[in-house]
Amino acid sequence: MRSLEIRLGGSGGQGLILAGIILAEAAILDGKVSVQSQSYGPEARGGSSKAEVIISDGTIVYPKVLKPDVLLALTSSAYKSYKEDVKETGLIIVDDSVEVEQESKVKTLKFPILKTAQEVVGKAYVANIVSLGVIAELTKIVSKESLEKAVLKRVPAGTEELNRKALEEGFKLGGVPWDK
Predict the structure, then answer these.
(1) What percent of the chain has pLDDT over 70?
(2) In whole angstroms, what separates CA 133 from the centre of its chain?
(3) Could you tell me how many helices (H) and strands (E) the chain has, helices first?
(4) Which domains does the chain have, with CATH numbers?
C-alpha cells in the first residue's frame, strides 16, 4: 500500500490551505483515499500557514502528518520550522528565495515558484497552484488530469485560465530540477 504524507508551509495569503484542499480532492478523483488538515496563525495575512495532506491507496489510520514524505516551504520560517520533521528518504521543495542548509540529509530542490507566479503567469497569488504543479510532477502522486479538474473546480470564477496557466508552469518547473 502506497501512502504519501505532504506538508505545505508558508505564510497566510499564499493560498496553501486551498492548495491542500485541491491536492486532496485530486487524489480522490484518482480513486485514492485522502485526508487534509490545516493550521494557521491568527493573522489574516502574513502569519504562518500550514496545510497537510495524506494520500493513500488504502486506509489512513491517523489523519495528521507525523513525518512528511514531502515538504513544500515557500518561506524561510516554514523551512526552518518543518525541515527536521521530513523523513530522511523524503523530499523538501523550497522556493528559490529560501536559504537552505547545505548539510541537510534530505534531498532538497529549489524552484523559482514565487517568481514564476509573478513574472511568467503574471499574478503572485497563483504561487500555490504553481506549487501544486511542481509537487505533482515530482511525486506523480496524483494525475495531471485530476489535479487540473480539482484546481478548476476550486478557484474563483473568472480565474480558470490564469490558474490553468499557473498549473502548467508548475508542471514545467517540476520537470526540470533546479539547484539543491
Answers:
(1) 93
(2) 8
(3) 6, 6
(4) 3-174 (3.40.920.10)
